[in-house]
């Protein structure tokens, strides 16, 4: 059974472990250097300060994934658009946990009056592409060779979900 709840500071070590694994071993995250617990704390404090949600997924009382959204671009005209992230421990993928996290994140975004949710996905991460498609996201663009990690150029795919059709 999976429980989705807002993250708290006691979850940050587990979030850090999941995040750092992806930094070191995948192109899910284009960072190179693992984060410190202090950096993860600052990240969390900034999310809270800006009113952005950070959710965790737990199985057997252990954090196995997290999701959040934040500013898409800093100019005020973009204030109704957010970019999201969903991260899972490797052995918890394909079990519906990511879906539960993202659905809750979408619900929170709708309640916050967000109009569009955007996700940037490495083009080699076909599982994430299908995952987003399943939840109604549509591909809106591909940027060729905009990232570089593990001695190769990386393409990123942007997908979006329009949450509300009405103008605020």
TrEMBL record:
- EC assignment: 2.3.-.-
* Enzyme's top EC category: transferase
Q: Which InterPro entries does this entry report, sorted A to Z?
A: Acyl_CoA_acyltransferase (IPR016181), GNAT_dom (IPR000182)
Instruction: List where the protein spans the membrane.
Output: none
Q: Which residues form the N-acetyltransferase domain?
A: 2-164
Q: Where is the signal peptide?
A: none
Q: Which UniProt keywords apply?
A: Acyltransferase, Transferase
Please give the Gene Ontology molecular function terms for this protein.
acyltransferase activity
Q: What is this protein called?
A: GNAT family N-acetyltransferase
Q: Which organism is it from?
A: Algoriphagus namhaensis
Species lineage:
Bacteria, Pseudomonadati, Bacteroidota, Cytophagia, Cytophagales
């Amino acid at each position: 059974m999976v429980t989705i709840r807002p993250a708290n500071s006691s979850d940050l070590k587990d979030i850090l472990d999941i995040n750092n694994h992806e930094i070191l071993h995948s192109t899910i995250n284009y960072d190179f250097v693992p984060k410190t617990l202090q950096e993860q704390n600052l990240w969390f404090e900034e999310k809270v300060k800006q009113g952005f949600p950070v959710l965790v997924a737990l199985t057997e009382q252990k954090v196995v994934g997290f999701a959040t959204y934040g500013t898409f671009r800093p100019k005020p005209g973009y204030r109704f658009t957010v970019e999201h992230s969903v991260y899972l421990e490797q052995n918890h993928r394909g079990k519906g946990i990511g879906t539960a996290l993202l659905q809750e994140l979408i619900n929170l975004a709708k309640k916050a009056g967000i109009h569009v949710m955007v996700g940037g996905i490495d083009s080699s991460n076909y599982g994430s592409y299908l995952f987003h498609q399943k939840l109604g996201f549509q591909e809106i663009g591909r940027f060729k060779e905009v990232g570089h990690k593990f001695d190769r150029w990386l393409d990123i795919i942007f997908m979006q979900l329009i949450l509300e059709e009405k103008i605020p």
